[in-house]
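In this supplementary section we document a worked example of the pipeline. Step one takes a protein sequence of length 359 as its only input; no multiple sequence alignment statistics are reported here. Step two produces a three-dimensional model, which step three serialises into structure tokens for compact storage. The input and output of this example are shown verbatim.
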Amino acid sequence: MHSTNRSSRLVATWLLIGVAMTVIQIALGGITRLTGSGLSITQWDVITGSLPPLNEQQWLTEFAKYKQTPQYQLLNFDFTVSDFKFIFFWEWFHRLWARTIGLVFAIGFVWFMVKKQFKKEMVQPLLILFFLGALQGAIGWIMVASGLIGDAVYVKPTRLALHFIFALGLLCYTFWFSLRLLVKDEQRIQNNSLRQWNGVLLTLLIVQLLYGALMAGHKAAATAPTWPTINGEWVPEKLWNDQSLFLNLVNNTVLIHFIHRGLAYLLFVLVLIWSLKLFKTNGSDLFKKTRWWPLAIVLLQLILGIASVLTSNDIIPGNWGVFEWMAQLHQLTGMLLLLSLVWMLFVLRGEQGYTERNG
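The serialised model returned by step three reads:
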């Protein structure tokens, strides 16, 4: 039984390394977006694309490909090779890190298989994990391709949002799987009411993060750089335009602002009420030590969101300034808030986990 527990801990540690690497990958995606680097590499070469250009001629060849894109022709037509090298680096590194995550999982999978560390019930979740990783890579390329045609100078916001949400899904799935192997059943508590609250909060947060991605995709922060009102109005007059309901929900930047801010306030209030209930609930030491996480993170997330809006007038193309720092930290705390709610959902569940955890 001791070796069985050790096996579970090793696999869980491997998965948690993957969680950390995925958080970094999503952060790199944020940097890529904020620096306008996402369309600098116009092809998807899984193997040969691992290496950047190694000499000046190769750089000129890649730059020539970029010159054929709408982004260069309509937006970055004054770019030099030096400018191109900067944006190329971030997109290349973003893709390289994704490949590295794949290698870490593949090598770890083979090693655990050879060492016979996997239990039968672990195999199916791992196969699903590999499938989700491959799917995320495919969605990433579909997103990039949307910015290489027509008069697009950036990727389509809806595809950026899809890419972001799938990345978060992969992150949460990996995290949940690791918790099933790492956390003992006696460290969890059963409370249906708190668990239902948790589910509602997670649902609202997913919608909130989706709208955060639409904010980013439309580069919408600067369209209403005021707080607490939206350009002087609590409820903007032009929440709806002549588009269809769906197009308003995904393209109308004023409405996107309104929904994103409104959900932020709603989440904060609900997390506060839920946390007060958590503090009044007896449970395991693990529960008591971690129940404050969501409230602390959602408060920080709210502050960073306000700071992002208020500094959005200071955006200078090609320059990493205060707004970019605020936006990047805002995205990072959004991920941490999501993981904290997933953590609490796991701790509050009362179902039996794998028997190997209880030895």
